[in-house]
Each structure stands twice: as structure tokens, then as C-alpha cells.
Inverse folding.
């Protein structure tokens, strides 16, 4: 006979979470109990409940529609970044396995990002980022929106756009190539935080996309920023790019040596 789980305690402490995920995967009563804790007063309990649900949701397609609706209610209220990130990751996962459920919500997400208060805008940005990472086709003409955000006078818009581009880079170079000229121009943005973020985003693109690597590497090498923080990021970025190049050269050499 299986030991009875103290589900609330596990969700509150995180101890025994793996066992709870296993139990929820085959015991619907346990899963239903976990779902109830999405309404708990503690954000950590809600977050861990979502982790459990996210690990088993693919086996319970009938739960996805009510879960999506619940998540959109939760994200509007969420003030804890870890919880918001978990909500966004769950929506991103569902956008891949059940895209029709998310597609209809995209206009609402975009509208909330455009006209919401600062908290709502940040929370919606996290969701958009995860959808871009998992299924960017759902976002339609978001490319135009990102292009506009990159030149926005609002620093938050520029930073969010950089995060969006990093998420798009997880899919294919073709999604991010059109943004490269504007990305490079952000290396000279008046805001130090934007410049740091631009270096990080460009480094990520160079690491993931060999076709963009040469030009990005050259631009980072010629950068001479007065900010020590920016130049430290440049140094870190060039080191990452060099490591990737070294690894790729090693793999190519191995393939050559093993070919008949």
C-alpha cells in the first residue's frame, strides 16, 4: 500500500516533488488534488503545483483548456516573478502541444502588453517570450511589433524586444536575421542596461547561428564602450563565441579523422 502524501507540505517545501510528479502521472486523484493548489495563498505552492502539472499535462488533454483559462487569470494577479515564469513556461509548452488553445488568446495577450499597467506588461512579455520560444508561428505579425519596439523611446520596450529576439533564436536564424542591423545599433544605445542586453543577445545569436557569427564577432571586437560593465559583457561574449568555434572545429576534425 502506497504511503499517503502530504501534498500541501510537498508543494510548500519542494521536498519530495519528484515523487509527487510520479504519483500524479498515474493517480488522477493526486493530480486533481495538486490542481486545487493553484488557488493557494502562497505563490511557492502555486508554482510547484504548476511544475507537477506541466510534467504530466500531455497525458491529460482534457485538462488543457480549463488550465489555460486558469493560467491567464493567475498571470494577471501574479506579483512573484518565479510564479509568473512558471506560468509562462506552461503556456509555452501548451502552445507547442495544443496550439489552437493559445492561438485564440494571442490578441488578448498582445493587447494586455500594449495597454496594461507596468506589472501586466511585464507578465505578458514573459508569456510572449515563451510562445516565441516554443511556437513563434502563433504570433503572426509580431515581427513588425518587435522591429518597432527596438526603436521605441521606451527603454522597457527595447529590453523586452531583445528578450523576444533571444527567444526567437531558439527556433531558426530566419526569425532573427531581419533584426540584425537594429540589434547592432543598440550596441550604441544611450542606456547602459540596453547596451549590456544587446551584447548578451548578440552573443546568444552568434553562438546559435554560425551564419551570423562573423559579423557579430567583428562588431563586438571593435566596440569600445566607456562602461566597464558593457566591456566585461563583451569580453564574456567573445569568450563564449571562441569556445563554440573551438568545439565545432574539434567536431569537424573528429569527423574527418573517422571518415573512410
Amino acid at each position: 500500500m502506497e504511503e499517503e502524501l502530504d501534498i500541501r507540505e510537498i508543494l510548500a517545501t519542494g521536498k519530495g516533488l519528484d515523487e509527487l510528479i510520479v504519483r500524479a502521472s498515474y493517480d488522477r486523484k493526486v493530480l486533481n488534488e495538486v490542481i486545487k493548489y493553484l488557488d493557494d495563498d502562497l505563490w511557492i505552492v502555486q508554482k510547484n503545483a504548476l511544475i507537477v502539472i506541466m510534467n504530466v499535462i500531455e497525458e491529460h488533454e482534457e485538462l488543457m483548456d480549463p488550465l489555460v483559462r486558469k493560467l491567464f487569470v493567475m498571470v494577471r494577479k501574479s506579483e512573484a516573478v518565479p510564479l509568473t515564469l512558471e506560468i509562462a513556461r506552461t503556456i509555452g509548452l501548451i502552445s507547442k502541444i495544443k496550439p489552437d488553445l493559445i492561438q485564440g488568446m494571442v490578441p488578448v495577450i498582445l493587447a494586455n502588453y500594449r495597454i496594461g499597467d507596468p506589472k501586466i506588461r511585464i507578465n505578458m512579455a514573459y508569456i510572449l517570450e515563451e510562445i516565441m520560444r516554443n511556437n513563434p508561428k502563433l504570433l503572426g505579425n509580431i515581427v513588425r511589433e518587435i522591429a518597432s519596439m527596438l526603436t521605441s523611446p521606451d527603454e522597457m520596450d527595447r529590453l523586452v524586444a531583445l528578450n523576444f529576439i533571444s527567444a526567437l533564436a531558439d527556433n531558426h536564424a530566419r526569425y532573427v536575421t531581419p533584426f540584425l542591423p537594429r540589434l547592432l545599433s543598440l550596441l550604441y544605445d544611450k542606456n547602459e542596461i540596453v547596451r549590456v542586453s544587446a551584447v548578451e543577445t548578440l552573443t546568444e545569436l552568434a553562438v546559435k547561428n554560425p551564419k551570423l557569427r562573423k559579423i557579430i564577432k567583428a562588431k563586438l571586437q571593435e566596440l569600445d564602450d566607456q562602461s566597464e560593465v558593457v566591456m566585461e559583457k563583451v569580453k564574456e561574449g567573445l569568450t563564449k563565441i571562441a569556445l563554440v568555434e573551438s568545439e565545432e572545429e574539434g567536431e569537424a576534425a573528429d569527423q574527418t579523422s573517422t571518415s573512410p
